[in-house]
Amino acid sequence: xxxxxxxxxxxxxxxxxxxxxxxxxxxxxxxxxxxxxxxxxxxxxxxxxxxxxxxxxxxxxxxxxxxxxxxxxxxxxxxxxxxxxxxxxxxxxxxxxxxxxxxxxxxxxxxxxxxxxxxxxxxxxxxxxxxxxxxxxxxxxxxxxxxxxxxxxxxxxxxxxxxxxxxxxxxxxxxxxxxxxxxxxxxxxxxxxxxxxxxxxxxxxxxxxxxxxxxxxxxxxxxxxxxxxxxxxxxxxxxxxxxxxxxxxxxxxxxxxxxxxxxxxxxxxxxxxxxxxxxxxxxxxxxxxxxxxx
Length: 294
Fold this sequence. Notes:
Elements: H1 2-45, H2 48-51, H3 54-82, H4 90-101, H5 103-112, H6 115-118, H7 126-158, H8 164-170, H9 176-204, H10 211-244, H11 248-293
Helix pairs in contact: 1-3, 1-11, 3-4, 3-5, 3-11, 4-7, 5-9, 5-11, 7-9, 9-10, 10-11
């Protein structure tokens, strides 16, 4: 009877040990599949001209970064499932943490490039550009500094603690660096979206637009708000998790989800624009070909 109870206890402890990495594998796999699908659609609907734009290249880099995160998460989580008693290499685990917390600064910078559509560099005075971009530039630099301090603290803790779970637990609950970074991320996104929508409304309200142009502007507004609202909710969820729960599993899953949602949001905006260009090119072809044949 005691042997049965001991066996059940061992099995129960083993299941509890591999459950968090198993949840990470399932979640990351599903989100990565969405990224790959959207990447195929992006290349399918993009034109030769759109592929030469910096935003297109930035999207490809963002997807590649997210794929690297998926691979590293798969290695660390898979190792924890199939060989839970053999710790993952310190370098791989630190690289996974790096690709989980630093890329959101890059993703938010891609969204910031939307302001260049309203303030082209070649026609906007330098003083105006300085006033507009000084705040997001400073806050992004602050985010990078805070994240660097957290990563240094995390690396130092690996020399003291024995297991990766202890590392995560010790640097997770109410960590001032991560809490500050997520708060600054909300302010960063709020500023970028607010100034973009305000200037878009101010410029379009003074011009009489056709129904097609008005519908296109409404679509731009919807995409911009969506790209902000979803990450905002996830940011709030991250802060709630890190300040109220000692378990890093739920918070880490929300963090990974927020990373992929940010990339997907930026990618969907680019796909929408590329699809509009593709349809416009098809329309021009349909109008030109009959004339040429005749």
